[in-house]
Amino acid sequence: xxxxxxxxxxxxxxxxxxxxxxxxxxxxxxxxxxxxxxxxxxxxxxxxxxxxxxxxxxxxxxxxxxxxxxxxxxxxxxxxxxxxxxxxxxxxxxxxxxxxxxxxxxxxxxxxxxxxxxxxxxxxxxxxxxxxxxxxxxx
Length: 139
Prior knowledge:
Elements: E1 8-11, E2 14-20, E3 25-30, E4 40-43, E5 49-52, E6 57-61, H1 69-74, E7 77-84, E8 87-98, E9 107-109, H2 120-127, E10 129-136
Parallel strand pairs: 1-6, 1-9, 3-7, 4-8
Antiparallel strand pairs: 2-3, 2-10, 4-5, 5-6, 7-8
């Protein structure tokens, strides 16, 4: 098993997973500093996923909706959409790595970041979403 240690583990309290008519998934999260480098999404097939964004930062996605588990486990890639408010900061594709257990290492923190391009609603429309799942805990 690969040993990687992340200096930061950010918990994403609220996020959305959407599916378009082609079965492609997109995950909407808060924007983070800097561009990702070799990102991957690890999913345990249950309720937890970790977006390993680069060698420094991972984003924890907990309480994944029950109906979302199957499509996410079957996905080879997902589109990550980083938002600043309702505006898209950046989008990028990441491979999905199905693992038996997600290892959570690092110090938990919380942060958001910059650059504006198009609105969340416009991206959902252009993506052709047919389903949107609300996941996590809304405070």
